[in-house]
Amino acid sequence: MWKIRPRGGKGRILVGHGLDHDLDRLQLEYPSSMIRDTAKYPPLMKTSKLSNSLKYLTQAYLGYDVHVGIQDPYEDCVATMRLYTRMRYQKHKIEAYPLAADAHNRSNQVAWRQNEFERMSPDEMLSISRSDYYCWCLDSLA
């Protein structure tokens, strides 16, 4: 298994659709924090947490068809980058508090707080809820 390591400078974000399969076939490992997979990005997934096809995402979010005739890898790359760019530049309120996905915030729901959670109303629990995914709009701030 090969590991991708930067030789100095900044690491590169790897963008694709269904990258697990591609990286597995190439026998490569890439830091998960640097992967932007349109098949696994929660806002682009079905409510059942299954991924949508690239063909569907391109039609729904970009308004054109891919895979008309033969499947073209270049066309797939362009569509995936357009999806990523569109999601990256979405305008919405950025929360002032840390995300649940942040490493230092992952273990804040320890067992000793269970009683506290059981006494909370649904509205109180919603008010302390945090997003569990990294929003791609934060890539544009880096």
Automatic annotation (TrEMBL):
Top-level taxonomic group: Eukaryota
Cellular component GO terms held in the UniProt record: nucleus
Keywords: Hydrolase, Nuclease
SUPFAM superfamilies xref list: Ribonuclease H-like (SSF53098)
GO molecular function, one term: nucleic acid binding
PANTHER family for this protein: RNA EXONUCLEASE 4 (PTHR12801:SF146), RNA EXONUCLEASE REXO1 / RECO3 FAMILY MEMBER-RELATED (PTHR12801)
Name by which UniProt lists this protein: RNA exonuclease 4
